[in-house]
Amino acid sequence: MLILERYKTVRQIVLMTEQTEKTINFYKKNGMIKVEDYNCVAFVRFNGN
């Protein structure tokens, strides 16, 4: 069972990962879409780095 199938009732799934061609292609192949493809922006703040 694909993990996305298990949680198909969850309205929003957010994933953060490194920006490599291999990683991007993997998640696109699995139904994920880059945030900029939605014509929006995402923000993040990491504390304690």
From TrEMBL:
It comes from the Bacteria. This is Uncharacterized protein. It comes from Lutispora thermophila DSM 19022.
